[in-house]
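Give me the 3D structure for carnitine O-palmitoyltransferase.
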Amino acid sequence: MAEAHQAVAFQFTVTPEGIDLQLSHQALTEIYLSGVRSWKKRIIRLKVCPLLPSRLFKRTPCVCLPKPSVKIAAMLPIQSMSTQCQAVVSAVLFSTMLWLLLIFTMRLCLKQLLSYHRWMFEQHGKMSTTTKVWVALVRIFSGRKPLLYSYQGSLPNLPVPTVKDTVKRYLESVRPLTDDSQYERMTQLATEFESSLGNRLQWYLKLKALWASNYVSDWWEEYVYLRGRSPLMVNSNYYGMDFLYVTPTPIQAARAGNSIHAFFLYRRKLNREEIKPSRIPGTVIPLCAAQCERIFNTARTPGEETDSVQHWQDSDYIVVYHRGRYFRLRVYQAGRLLSPREIEFQIQRILDDTSPPSKGEAKLGALTAGDRIPWAQARKKHFGSGVNKRSLDCIERAAFFVTLDDDEQGMLGDDPEASLDRYAKSLLHGKCYDRWFDKSFSVVYFKNGKTGINAEHSWADAPVVAHLWEYTLATDCFQLGYNAEGHCKGEVDSSLPRPQKLNWEIAPECEEQISQSLTVAQALADDLDFHVLSFKDFGKGRVKRCRVSPDAFVQMALQLAYYRNRRTFCLTYEASMTRLFREGRTETVRSCTSESSAFVRALEGGEVTEVCRRLFRSASEKHQQLYRLAMTGAGIDRHLFCLYVVSKYLGVESPFLKEVLSEPWRLSTSQTPVQQVELFDMVNHPEYISCGGGFGPVADDGYGVSYYVLGDSMINFHISCKHSCPDTDAHKFGAEIRKALHDLIQLLSPSHREPSKVGESRHEFKKDL
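Predicted structure for carnitine O-palmitoyltransferase (769 residues):
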């Protein structure tokens, strides 16, 4: 996904002075600090386990004490109390200790159960007896009504793969991308690394895995995201779209009123832990919810060497941008959440406000869209005190950021495809100054009632934001709704205080920096080529009838499309999640394999149908195997990344790791699944479906592809690349994807006929090899 952009050729320096002993001390210090951060999170999240039947502890005996309670009473300094008081105190202490012991035992048992992953590798529809017993035990220990964070203490830690296994899988992944001499060279580098430096680096990782909850996540957040010095806009942030075919109301303020209210309803449920824990679809297996903690009241603050993510306590307001002005809008009045109609009323006040922006205010947001170092320097110099600091603090501490856009977006006019492309670009970068790209997420409301979301990537991954977005869209339309005129329902308290306009004192030097950042951001936005492909010819329903995984099917189509587009294969990034483990984030699935390239070459070489089908099955099964390995902690790239980080702290160079971390991902892909299917009725109301979301290209000469599988009959693709590269074109690649999808489904269909001139085609295929 967008994270792949920062994971390519990233560099950082560790400069402790002294001898190698001090370098080792630096590595140990970092591991120690990682553990401290991990344990702080555990203490903050320490909750009483809700999985136990509370009725077991409703009554505490105070007359007839068990022997342990009598011993406890004898040990406590309560001899001056009456016998009955001693009995009560000792019984309470004994039952509390017993209760805590039982909680700890149940969590430990559940943790051991959740460490079992063999079920994922079993053939679909054929569950072993061991797995059946395991499922029953997980259900028993999971409880009936767990809260959002109930499973956090029971999730296993991410395991550290062996160096041998990681190196072996890496060499397998690069085989279809290298010739014999290149492969032999990489094999030699890998063998040298495995037999020497690799074991030393592995020791530090194992030490960190014992001490910290997750040996990857904190380093991944810091070095891949927060130390990136390039613009967040396009390079890192991503977006989500509104409903594809429906606009619930054409009134901009009304749409904002309902959805802003829905966002705060979600926050209330989040604070009360009333949101159901996320699970792997169709299973009882819980996923880590740690990323949910920073959805609201969060901002990324720039630094000259590294940024930081700041999270505050719940704020009772949002910040709204409109026509160059920033407004503080309180959504609580005397502790009461404003109704949707009242929020609409307040938003309309902002839309009707004719006051001009302050000097330098209109394009202030461009600082968050440009390079990070100039923004950090400007923030320190011009926003460190006075009115500018107060206004900046107001933005950063807000629940989230809102933009009221004067443009109209969505499927418009006679060319809906082109309008969707403009819609995507608007959500990803806008005018480069009318979004606040440092906020955890920003919501955009367009003039015609369309909406969308732009999210910063360092604090969480797309599924967390998508869960929030699904809830908001569903609540907006199906629960809150609108009256006949398109306004929000309810009454308005006319005594509400007006939204407060933020004040700024922007110096000429700061205005110059704003202009420079805007120039950088505008060049990046102008270079972005984007295409949204809404594929409606068939969907996962037909693919499943061919007994193929929809994700593997799409990935094979992307491999075929890329080969036809560029006549070669490339290193392919598919984002997979590791949220089966505590504080897990993502892992990479290297989708271009020897099996997939063999299939593509066979199909393009005109091989017979049965051979192509067999090779396709082999390639899709290999892809599914790689996906399962990535999900269960046996991926390649995060392990190699952490080994590289340790090597930097130790001050040693590894030619193998250096080459691995510098390889470009020319095809970066990601699927965002629909998580809350129950919120939408895709049978009776198929028009109420989101178009999904997307991100910018990872490599200057590559493609970024996000796909969103909707129901059984639609797949939406969001394709990005750069105009400056003569070898890439988002629309042409979209056409190749469409053709590849049709060719694959035709190949897998029983009615597919044998191609003519088989012998000649086979000869061409061999020649191509």
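Confidence is low (pLDDT under 50) at residues 7-23, 47-67, 755-769. Let me know if you want a second pass.
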